[in-house]
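Retro notes, structure queue

What went well: the backlog is down to a handful. What didn't: a couple of records were mislabeled last round, so from now on we paste the full input next to the output in the thread. Example, using Molybdopterin dehydrogenase from Paenibacillus sambharensis:
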Amino acid sequence: MKQEYRSSSPAVWYPHDTSEAWRLKEAFAADSQYIAGGTLLRTWWESGTAEPPRHLISLNSIPGLSGVTLHEHYLMIGSQTTLAGIRYNTAAARYAPLLVEACRVIAAPSVRNLATIGGNISSMVGDSLPALLALHADLLWFNGSQTEAVPLEAWLAEAETRSGSAALLTHIRIPLHGIRLKTAEEVVHEKRLYEGDDVLPVGYEVKRLSAYDKVGRREAFTPSVVTTAIMGDITEEGRLANVCVAAGGGQTPPSRLRAPESVLEGRLLSDAELLHALYEAVYTDFDPVGDAFAGREYRRLTAAGLLTAAVWKSAKGMAREEDSGCC
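Corresponding output:
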């Protein structure tokens, strides 16, 4: 473990593994903070929103906390993976496009090259959170002796009570709902059938309703006013199933919107009354925090419009597919 002192600056510690990092956080408690990219923390310190702690515990020297790996039933993302690293990762693009889109529109490219997904989550208002909620993500926390999986939704609900915890976020786990990866035997068999094909085929996928949207005060490089995400399956009959709707933005803690989910669940995507019912449900259920730039009412209307438009686009695309299939 190395320690670095700077005049009138926090002491910076460089633990070699998660156990050492956790012990440092336990020892220094509220006088310390984990840090990796530090992009948001520096913004808070420079604006006076927060005071720098006496000790910074750098996670940059700890192996195994970055990268994206594909498993049979889930996608695993290291907490120290940069937003740019997720944006350009092929497995993430294939199995978590909502998250990839969220990472694409967060801040500027130079920030995305440094900022980590773990830092965005730990802020509790990061623009990746609605996408991760819609993806039913779990957070993996090291508590000093073992790693515990906590659903993101549950963690957000209890985050204030855990503010003094030394637990270290190590990975984000995203289940592969509606997707079955090929077994080793199937891959070998198909490789023999399609010799020379560089891309090994994946199993089946259900049709999906999937959309992530962000509205800011300008087109790019801006804090969000509203962020929304929606994910659901579309059955062969054209009905919506397993729907998850989430929204946040600005200083509004992201959350799932249960009323819109209930409106959509089991309904035909082509139902003429669906869009109006969805708009009303989002407007009623979403309870954002207003500020000097965008009031509560504006944010509610914007969220309702974004999510309704997402469902309308999906319905339009499905109708187009059906029309082309009939010709």
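Agreed that this is the format going forward. Reviewer comment attached to the example: The longest helix spans residues 296-326.
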